[in-house]
Design a protein that fits this description.
Elements lengths: L7 H5 L19 H14 L12 H8 L3 H13 L3 E3 L5 E3 L6 H18 L4 H11 L4
Length: 138
């Protein structure tokens, strides 16, 4: 009853919608790796990226931004060294440090719910259906 989107590999290339706003300015004095690094930090500070949220793979983000994979890899390394993100092996890279407010707590609760529902064997469409019922949308 599980769906393909519940596997780490399927989800690892899907960029959070907040990262869609991330752009590289070729005319900037700031190097591209620094633009990515600062862009991720800005998205965290604005609450658009939350603690525990998965980042796209290095290759996927590099492709979307039109930069070399090494550029994004350097950004991720520097973010990890600063304690902003963490890499969990094959599971990918995740936001480690956030604003630690209600948004982060809510995201953590939602993540835990989805993980538990998947462990029970529910596929993603049923999980969404259940949430809609709880929210009174059906």
């Amino acid at each position: 009853m599980t769906s393909d989107s519940s596997t780490p590999d399927a989800a690892s290339d899907a960029a959070p919608s907040a990262l869609a706003a991330l752009r590289i300015d070729a005319d900037s004095d700031r190097p591209p790796f620094e633009q990515v690094r600062v862009g991720v930090i800005d998205l965290i500070e604005s609450g658009q990226l939350l603690t525990g949220e998965r980042l796209p793979t290095v290759r996927a983000l590099a492709s979307r931004l039109g930069v070399a994979a090494n550029t994004v890899a350097r950004s991720y390394r520097e973010l990890e060294a600063a304690g902003v993100i963490e890499t969990r092996g094959r599971q990918g890279s995740f936001i480690k440090a956030g604003r630690h407010d209600a948004l982060d707590a809510g995201f953590a609760a939602a993540t835990e719910y989805v993980e538990t529902a998947r462990e029970l064997g529910f596929d993603d469409s049923l999980i969404v259906e259940m949430l809609n019922r709880v929210l009174g949308r059906t």
